[in-house]
Amino acid sequence: MKKFDTRCLTLAIALGGMIASAPAWAGKTLDGVKSRGQVVCGVHTGLAGFSAADSAGKWTGLDVDVCRAIAAAVLSDPEKVKYVPLTAQQRFTALQSGEIDVLSRNTTLTLTRDASLGLEGTVVTYYDGQGFIVPKKSNIKSPKQFKNQTVCVQSGTTTEKNLTDYSKANNLNIKTVVFEKEEAATAAYFAGRCISYTTDASGLASIRNKVATNPADHVILPDLVSKEPLGPMVRRGDDEWTAIVKWVIYGLIEAEEYGITQANVDQLKTSSQDPVVKRILGTGEDMGKLLGLDKDWMARAIKATGNYGEIFERNVGPKSALGLPRGINNQWNKGGLMYALPMR
Length: 344
Description:
Elements: H1 2-21, H2 29-36, E1 39-44, E2 52-53, E3 59-60, H3 62-75, E4 81-86, H4 91-96, E5 102-103, H5 111-115, E6 119-121, E7 126-128, E8 130-135, E9 150-154, H6 158-169, E10 175-179, H7 182-190, E11 196-200, H8 201-211, E12 218-220, E13 228-230, E14 233-235, H9 239-257, H10 265-271, H11 275-281, H12 297-305, H13 308-315
Parallel strand pairs: 1-4, 1-5, 9-10, 9-11
Antiparallel strand pairs: 2-3, 6-14, 7-13, 8-11, 8-12
């Protein structure tokens, strides 16, 4: 028995040594990104403030800036991104099949999507909720006034399911008019086919600003009927790539908390003695090597896009075309929900 125990112990030690010496990561996405010299990013077909292309084909928006930050961190160039516009129905298949490396497209992170599609949610980049837009002349003040009314909605979204739940919970018998494409759904609403169109409140602001002949003729109701935490998704099973996407976003959030901006990042690299700032910028402990990146990965990302607050203000904030309040998307120490895991 003693001899058997000794052999088992020897085998356990040997196996332990093999495990300890094995590579920390087994994913292939990073290798693919590096070999092609490009991050392939799935985005919305056109949602102002989040991901939209101008007449010259230049993409901008909060979701676009996430892609640019990832490219800056991994490839040292925020412009090395290929944008693939995807509808709600196309987005998950594109990620599952490997057509894209990351889905950064106003997508709600849910249990079903995280656990049954072979995909994984990363970090919330915008806390939202489902809202409703109605004609101002309708004098509707709450979605509870929608009894027996028609509401336009896009198929293949959490919005469609939430609307059904809300109607049943409040005994409203809402008649849903479902469209495959967002453009068709919004066109039907603005043509008067439905009393309301419903989607994420941020999306409603974007659509009203972009599509309405006179935005003032349409009101976004204050009631939100769901939680819609929006954030990028990646393929499940590639721990290396998942960690990179997560920590680039956390780094942007933590950079704002510690006052690191697009304008001062270079100066802080040489002047700051704050241990957290030094870790973020690679002048203290080297956090990049834990992700398979160099020590300047996060400094490049911040220099390319600014911190999370700068990204928010530029694309969707009060001074942008959308004019959305910071609200719950503020930093945790300013009454919001943006809370980065510690970079240490």
